[in-house]
Structure formats: C-alpha cells, structure tokens
C-alpha cells in the first residue's frame, strides 16, 4: 500500500470514525491460503497477500483471540477496531502457511476443523473437484442431464453446478452422489491436502485455538436431530483426543443464521459443553451478543488497501 494512502486511511479517515467501532469486534473468516492456483481454487487468498493483510492488521488494528472477546463483559473492554481471526475447515495450509505467519507476527488465531478431513484427507467438495480434475471422460450424466467436462472451462462450470446441487443434500445422499460421480468419472479420491493429527497438535502448541466444525460438514438445518448431535459431538471428541484439552468453540458449516442452522442447534452446542458458536452471517460481536450465533465477516478484496478500507468501513457500519 502506498505510504500516503496508508497515512490517510489510518491517520485521518479511521480516526475520524473510530468512535463508531468502539465496543464491538469484527471476526474475520478465512478458509485457504495458498499459491497453488488450482482450477477450482480461484477464490483462495495468496500467501504474500495474506502476509501483507496480517501485517496491516498488526500495525493498525487491535487483534485479539476469540477467548479474549468472549471474556469481555462490558463494551468498554473492546477498543476501536478490534479484530479476531478465524480459519474454517482445516486444510494443510493452516499448518504450513497460516500458523507460521500468525506466529511470526504474534497474532492469535482460531482454527475450526472438520474432523472427517483428518481421516480422509479432504472434504466432500474436494472429492468432487478431484473426480472432475482427474477424469478422462468427456461428459457425465447428473439427474438425467448430460454435462460436458471435456475442457477446463466446462469442468469449472460443472464443478460450480455440482457444488450447488450437493451442498444442501443430506449427508447420506451426498455420499451416494459422490460415489456415483466417481463411478462415472472412473476416479478415486487421492488429493490429500488436510491437517493430520500431528499438525493439529503443532498448531495448538503454537498457542492457537482449536475449535470444532462438525465431522462431515453437513448443513445442520437439513439433517435429522440425531445426525446433528452425532456430527457435532464426534468432531468435539476427536479434537479433544488429539489436543488433550477441552474444545469449547464451534463454527457452523456454511453458517448462515436461520438458513443453515437455528436455535435448535444452538441448544445442542450448549448441551454438549460448548461456550460459543460462530456463524457466517455478517455483523459484529459485542459483549451482549448471542454467544451461539456470533456474526463474522469476510472481506473479499485481493488488494490490501481495499481490504483495509472495507474493514474500517465494516467496523463502523450498523447492522440491523
Ligand atoms: Zn466450512
């Protein structure tokens, strides 16, 4: 970022509106940080981009851990431009890229891990991506429709289409769908790119918080109650065994309040001994927020200046 722009943004603009961001925090959600540039990973944050963004947060924002946020009892405890960092899903780059950068800058972070990925090397969407990337077939049939997958552009369109179709299926339907897809594509899942038990322990030992994100990443709102309880409980138990400590925080898969989870799931978390549940609905955290539907925010800008500007604006924005 140019020096003048940075001086204006943090010396003039952010100061003028800082009172509006007092007593509240912005919790950022990240997923993957990588330079792989794979066909289906174009939304990923690059490594240098992530480092630049973290440097800027360190310099101009008040970055705290989610434990610190949850311990704040009165608004005054949250200074202007308070930020917390969270990373969902549990890909390998949490260990090899994100943790070293946070560690170097002494920034706290929380990692919400989908435990099936530890056992299988990836999640349901990775299995779909893998089938489409590896296949030599020119087309597949999905729900009676022939979908062309003979080149990269068509594969990308097919991938987006299949993700939308699969996301809101129940877990057993999703598994059946993926098995059929692999059969048609004549492929097997081999793209292992997930955290291992040792890597999770290393992240925890670096002082980061480990949280749960279910076992198989279902949309809780479409599953039966017992499936939800099993999914949430299993991920908590697996992570407690790995880290040898209590897992207190949870992030809802997909995470939109009302659409992907509801009050029923918030009660499940309470009963299972969690202290918080993080959504993906945009908003701020304040000491009086519902601790089982905590809003987060994801600025999408690749440019670090735009990212910072959006973050300052978000910190001051009113949410109904
Ligand atoms: Zn997720």
Automatic annotation (TrEMBL):
<dbReference type="GO" id="GO:0005576">
    <property type="term" value="C:extracellular region"/>
</dbReference>
<keyword id="KW-0732">Signal</keyword>
<dbReference type="GO" id="GO:0005975">
    <property type="term" value="P:carbohydrate metabolic process"/>
</dbReference>
<dbReference type="InterPro" id="IPR051398">
    <property type="entry name" value="Polysacch_Deacetylase"/>
</dbReference>
<protein>
    <submittedName>
        <fullName>Polysaccharide deacetylase</fullName>
    </submittedName>
</protein>
<dbReference type="InterPro" id="IPR011330">
    <property type="entry name" value="Glyco_hydro/deAcase_b/a-brl"/>
</dbReference>
<dbReference type="GO" id="GO:0016810">
    <property type="term" value="F:hydrolase activity, acting on carbon-nitrogen (but not peptide) bonds"/>
</dbReference>
<dbReference type="Pfam" id="PF01522">
    <property type="entry name" value="Polysacc_deac_1"/>
</dbReference>
<feature type="domain" description="NodB homology">
    <location>
        <begin position="81"/>
        <end position="320"/>
    </location>
</feature>
<dbReference type="InterPro" id="IPR002509">
    <property type="entry name" value="NODB_dom"/>
</dbReference>
């Amino acid at each position: 970022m140019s020096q003048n722009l940075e001086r204006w943004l943090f010396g003039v603009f952010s100061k003028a509106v800082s009172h509006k961001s007092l007593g509240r925090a912005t919790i950022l959600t990240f997923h993957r940080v990588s330079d792989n540039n794979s066909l289906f990973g174009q939304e990923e944050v690059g490594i240098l981009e992530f480092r630049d963004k973290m440097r800027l947060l360190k310099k101009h924002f008040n970055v705290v851990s989610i434990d610190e946020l949850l311990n704040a009892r009165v608004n005054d405890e949250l200074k202007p431009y308070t930020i917390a960092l969270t990373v969902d899903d549990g890909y390998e780059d949490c260990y090899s890229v994100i943790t070293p950068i946070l560690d170097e800058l002494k920034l706290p972070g929380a990692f919400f891990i989908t435990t099936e990925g530890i056992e299988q090397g990836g999640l349901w969407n990775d299995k779909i991506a893998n089938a489409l990337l590896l296949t030599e077939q020119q087309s597949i049939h999905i729900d009676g429709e022939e979908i062309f997958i003979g080149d990269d552009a068509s594969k990308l369109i097919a991938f987006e289409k299949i993700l939308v179709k699969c996301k809101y299926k129940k877990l057993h339907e999703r598994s059946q769908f993926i098995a059929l897809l692999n059969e048609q594509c004549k492929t097997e899942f081999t793209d292992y790119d997930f955290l291992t038990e040792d890597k999770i322990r290393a992240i925890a030992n670096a002082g980061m918080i480990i949280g749960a994100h279910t076992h198989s990443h279902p949309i809780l709102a479409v599953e039966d109650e017992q499936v939800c309880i099993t999914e949430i409980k299993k991920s908590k138990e697996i992570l407690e065994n790995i880290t040898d400590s209590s897992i207190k925080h949870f992030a809802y898969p997909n995470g939109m309040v009302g659409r992907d989870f509801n009050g029923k799931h918030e009660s499940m978390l309470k009963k299972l001994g969690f202290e918080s549940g993080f959504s993906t609905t945009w908003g701020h955290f304040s000491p009086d927020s519902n601790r089982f539907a905590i809003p987060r925010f994801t600025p999408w800008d690749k440019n670090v200046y735009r990212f910072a500007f959006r973050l300052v604006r978000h910190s001051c924005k009113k949410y109904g």
